[in-house]
């Protein structure tokens, strides 16, 4: 991209930072195809790549006001957001698959068929209850309790204050507890 493209992207990001929806649409038209290709290359699934692209542009919308003109091309900033979003989705997919692996912990080692069936049923209930949480809260709960991410890790990942992380987890666990007791 040449310097005119760079200046145009910087101008669009500045306008988006002020809430300009037309600038957002223009940025999507300009950068969307390249960012979609990147997401597709990482995720290797068209539907997931589309979701990652959408999530990326939501992040751009929310954070455009923080974009600072530097020596780096603004497309680098956009690529970083899209790449990280796609990688997060890839990891999330892996974690979702990994939750199935936790069923044997519910059953215990050497469990018989009846215990394994009860554990599978409990796992299904846990998954259904997790599905009731908003995506970001569900991801935070999984990261904290299945992967061991700290509050600080979660705050950095989601770009939110530490106390908000604590609130998300406390409310998420309360919701899960209520759901599991039904």
From TrEMBL:
GO biological process: DNA-templated transcription initiation
InterPro entries named among the record's database cross-references: RNA_pol_sigma-70-like, RNA_pol_sigma-70_dom, RNA_pol_sigma70_r2, RNA_pol_sigma70_r4_t2, RNA_pol_sigma_r2, RNA_pol_sigma_r3/r4-like, WH-like_DNA-bd_sf
Family annotation (Gene3D superfamilies): 1.10.1740.10, Winged helix-like DNA-binding domain superfamily/Winged helix DNA-binding domain
GO MF annotation list: DNA binding; sigma factor activity
Keywords of the record: Sigma factor, Transcription, Transcription regulation
A Pfam family assignment: Sigma70_r2
Keyword Transcription regulation assigned: yes
Superkingdom of the source species: Bacteria
Domain RNA polymerase sigma factor 70 region 4 type per the UniProt entry, residue ranges: 124-176
Keyword set includes Transcription: yes
Domain RNA polymerase sigma-70 region stretches: 27-95
Family classification: Belongs to the sigma-70 factor family. ECF subfamily.
NCBIfam families: sigma70-ECF
Official protein name in the record: RNA polymerase sigma factor
Source organism (scientific name): Marinibacterium profundimaris
Higher taxonomy: Bacteria, Pseudomonadati, Pseudomonadota, Alphaproteobacteria, Rhodobacterales
């Amino acid at each position: 991209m040449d310097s005119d493209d760079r200046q145009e992207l910087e101008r669009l990001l500045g306008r988006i930072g002020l809430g300009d929806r037309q600038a957002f649409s223009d940025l999507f038209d300009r950068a969307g195809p390249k960012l979609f290709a990147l997401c597709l290359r990482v995720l290797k699934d068209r539907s997931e790549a589309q979701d990652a692209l959408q999530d990326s542009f939501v992040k751009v919308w929310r954070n455009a006001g923080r974009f600072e003109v530097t020596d780096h091309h603004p497309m680098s900033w956009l690529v970083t957001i899209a790449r990280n979003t796609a990688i997060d989705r890839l990891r999330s997919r892996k974690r979702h698959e990994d939750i199935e692996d936790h069923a044997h912990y519910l059953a215990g080692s050497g469990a018989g068929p009846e215990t394994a069936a009860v554990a599978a049923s409990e796992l299904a209930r846990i998954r259904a209850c997790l599905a009731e949480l908003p995506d970001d809260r569900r991801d935070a709960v999984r990261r904290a309790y299945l992967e061991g991410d700290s509050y600080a890790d979660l705050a950095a990942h989601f770009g939110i204050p530490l106390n908000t992380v604590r609130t998300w987890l406390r409310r998420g666990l309360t919701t899960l507890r209520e759901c599991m007791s039904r």
